[in-house]
UniProtKB/TrEMBL annotation:
InterPro entries: Nucleotide-diphossugar_trans, UDPGP_fam, UDPGP_trans. The keyword S-adenosyl-L-methionine does not apply. Belongs to the UDPGP type 1 family. It holds the Pfam family UDPGP. Substrate binds at residue 217. It comes from Tetrapisispora phaffii (strain ATCC 24235 / CBS 4417 / NBRC 1672 / NRRL Y-8282 / UCD 70-5) (Yeast). CDD domains: UGPase_euk. This is UTP--glucose-1-phosphate uridylyltransferase. Keywords: Nucleotidyltransferase, Transferase. PANTHER family: PTHR43511.
Amino acid sequence: MSTGKRHTKTQSSYAFESSTSNVAASQMRNALNKLDDTMPNDNAASARFQNELDSFFTLFRRYLIEKNSKNKLDWEKIKSPNPEEVVEYKIIEQQPENVSNLSKLAVMKLNGGLGTSMGCVGPKSVIEVRDGNTFLDLSVRQIEYLNRQYDSDVPLLLMNSFNTDKDTEHLIKKYSSNRIRIKSFNQSRFPRVFKDSLLPVPNDVNDSLDSWYPPGHGDLFESLYASGELDALIDQGKEILFVSNGDNLGATVDLKILNHMIETNAEYIMELTDKTRADVKGGTLISYDDQVRLLEVAQVPKEHIDDFKNIRKFKNFNTNNLWINIKAIKRLVEQNALELEIIPNEKTISRNGHDVNVIQLETACGAAIRYFNGAHGVVVPRSRFLPVKTCSDLLMVKSDLFYLEHGALKIDPSRFGPNPLIKLGSHFKKVNDFNQRISHIPRLLELDHLTITGNVYLGKNVSLKGTVIIVCSDGQKIDIPNGSILENVVITGNLQILEH
């Protein structure tokens, strides 16, 4: 089985150069061995757990080496990609569509996130976003329509985390009669590390959930391989995997990009879209040592942060809509070739009534672009990037700016200009509070900018146009009455209007 093969390869990589990191690495290895001993060694779960600890140790060891290395990004070597490295969508959309290519396609949604940032319990994919449909409902409807329309068999894969796995397995049962094959697998579960001692937080396989973390979507290559789902796709004749975030409602199957990938023999395509001032921190493609690479803000030297945020210099950013050759994934995983940039993410957990600083080492799948042959970016319309990260985003996708067509959100053709900028304050952070304060979605078709902060409630049939700013003072309340039309206004203080 694939897991055994990878386990052997990982074990053979433990010898590494002598350095000041050796002591920390040795202590970590001993601690992981003790942690491994707490897992009953008589089933497939044990083999998976051991594999995950080995993969984590490889990542941790590399983190120590890179942390002490002087090999940092040389800003002077950064160049703008050439026209072959970043292609405009308007060039490829002129090519005819070849529907038969759908037989080579599988779709994956990254489904490891919880809805906690929006005040919800369970997977984020089950938050209702439009007309009673959840993120997952919309993904299923899109692919089911595709399969029905073209008599194809495009499967949907869900990469869950240990946080979302059980709930998702229960939820997908409702699609059993739909014309779509849904498979799910878990990404890795890695131990968090104490920042001061650089030792793992858990002492036992059954330690509390906050002792562990899913290591970012860069883990998809290893986890897809170890799960057996990668080989299953190859056996089905699938060649290309379209990967996107589960909360990006613009990430639909695009036949033009699929055809372009097959015609150019590219092993990896990253969808980019034009930066706005709201996207200045988004990762961008660069040419570095004659190689296409993803540059993330965390890699940028402090003295060049302003350069990185300059939307004239770095015009596009990564949408995390990725098209990847499936056999190339297998080749690179088996070669242990995917050394993705490590993103140390600091967190705080509670232990014995005290806050403790911990580190989780993460990777991003976009960073893998430099390992694939013929990899390049495609600059797509902004409509293919419609993430819902906050209730501000939720307001927009629920509004009349969009209509629903076969599970996909389409912009109203009468809308002029880019999507509005919407900023809702902390009173609207959680979905329940959002639904109470905006129980009826206002009309936003002619809106440019909206800011609402404080104790504000919107009535029925409200229209917002131009720039609307509503700021409620502390201890006060603002009620926007039914039928209000607010255009280019600023409302502050305290307002309760009685309807006539």
